[in-house]
Amino acid sequence: MGKTVRLTMAQAVAHFLKKQMTIVDGKKVPIFGGVWAIFGHGNVAGIGEALYQVRGELPTFRAHNEQGMAHAAIAYAKASFRQRFMACTTSIGPGALNMVTAAGVAHVNRIPVLFLPGDVFANRAPDPVLQQIEDFGDGTVSANDAFRPVSRYFDRITRPEQIIAALKRAMQVLTDPLDCGPVTLSLCQDVQAEAFDYPESFFEERVWTTRRPRPDADELANAIALIKKSEKPVIIAGGGVLYSQATKELTAFAEEHRIPVVVTQAGKSAIDERHPLALGSVGVTGTSAANAIAVETDLIIAVGTRCQDFTTGSWALFQNEKLNILGLNIAAYDAAKHDGQTLVADAREGLKAVSSGLAGWKAPAALAQKAEREKQVWMEAAAKAMASTNAALPSDAQVIGAVTRSIDLEKAIGLCAAGGLPGEMHKLWPATAPGSYHMEYGFSCMGYEIAGGLGAKMAHPEKEVFVLVGDGSYMMLNSELATSVMLGLKLNIVLLDNRGYGCINRLQMATGGANFNNLLKDAHYEVMPEIDFRGHAESMGAVAVKVASIAELEKAIADSKRNDRTSVFVIDTDPLITTEAGGYWWDVAVPEVSPREQVNKARKAYVEARAAQRIS
């Protein structure tokens, strides 16, 4: 029997995590960027003491909100292209449950993060303990069972030796390009403090590298044949291109075979949008150029995307009756969506293999020529939408224009998550370098923005991170603004105040609904709030300014380059104006019966639009 070391279960967790390594840009680095922790009675004595012992090798960061710190961890992993990630620990009960929403974000977006919530006593001697959820019919249930449907792997540790197998399985999931996603290890608070003689080999350094499965020979041959018979192919690039670090291969593939590229929210920045074959965003929030090509395409080459409804216009965008779909994806589950012909492989390896098999083949020249014409039309429309204005209430697009004119896009990250801004940024933000556009739109989770900005900054401290956030999301979760100041990590936060949930108000109007309960003026309030966002941001330590125009915003951003800490720019915006060019239908069910004529008209239009949906 080999040598052992006696540690508590919590100490074993800390010592194991610090020994996990990876290779980034040729250098060996810890795979865990640190641990986010908010301590309570369920983890302060166990995991808290253990993390203190390794604080020099595995840094612990204190946050103000459990969901916020989890969003920061998710953004860190996303900005690191899943090569590195973080852990999050909380006490039991409300502290743990506050992370469940963030776990949903990580699960939908296939992002690795390790959740270490405290749990009830395994020995049950003091039950029921403070903050314990009791199930009257199942004594094994705790609040942490809420993590089960939003975790790729879940385990409850009720004996100290169980952590050996659990941590090994956790690392396999966190580093696997197919299974990648959130892992929850629920740590019973008494077991955290229990000791066990762990094998020393468990704490040996381990280097994790990216697995790159190559395509099956038959699937590859079928894919090459399918592409060769197409006349109007288009590549839809998703987040998998970035996570595979296949951006160079994507561009080379498009150039070699003369195929236009359109991008999802997660895939935006996978190709430099200045490239003549890069047509920008596709679908509901798509550019007119991308959608003009997509409507006529006879072959979708879906690379690293799960083809969600915003990408496909709820599967009504593609109108060619001869349409075929080729799914190049690490996950067969995603590759096969909507009867797609599968090519299960790593994006980088798959693109190289297909390109080699297509040697000499190019799409008809007319396709690239049409793409060039449509792109020119779109660029003119986008420039018009983002142009400076003297309007008292500028549009979101005009604010985006002001920001992008004021910064070095090569050295910046534009970040957002929810509301109307993702649609405008998807169309208009000029992404030029991989990772320069960071959007959480798989879950579209309000409150991700500021915490996510912090995580992105931790991953790339050399970059200027610009967070664009609406007043609605800001009000939901802003506490990590203070954390950014405390950590000395400067964020640039552009807060667009349209006085309510402007995006959903527009959707409400589009589906025939009355203006109700979205904008503050349409909600049931005795007093209309006048929220001083500038003063609020200053109270948390940020440098803040309220600007009255687009010109003032550009000047404020230029002046802020001298600031040494997080800077907030508040501007009032119009809740109704959106970019007219581009876009596509989105399936949002309209009531079949209503006493209101506006709803009945919207229902008629809805039924007509659904007729174009591809059902499979």
UniProtKB/TrEMBL annotation:
Source species taxonomy: Bacteria, Pseudomonadati, Pseudomonadota, Alphaproteobacteria, Hyphomicrobiales
Protein keywords: Hydrolase, Thiamine pyrophosphate
Thiamine pyrophosphate enzyme N-terminal TPP-binding domain location: 49-131
GO annotation terms (biological process): inositol catabolic process; isoleucine biosynthetic process; L-valine biosynthetic process
Protein name: 3D-(3,5/4)-trihydroxycyclohexane-1,2-dione hydrolase
One Pfam family matching this protein: TPP_enzyme_M
Species the sequence originates in: Rhizobium favelukesii
Hydrolase keyword on record: yes
Coiled-coil annotated spans: none
Similarity-based family: Belongs to the TPP enzyme family.
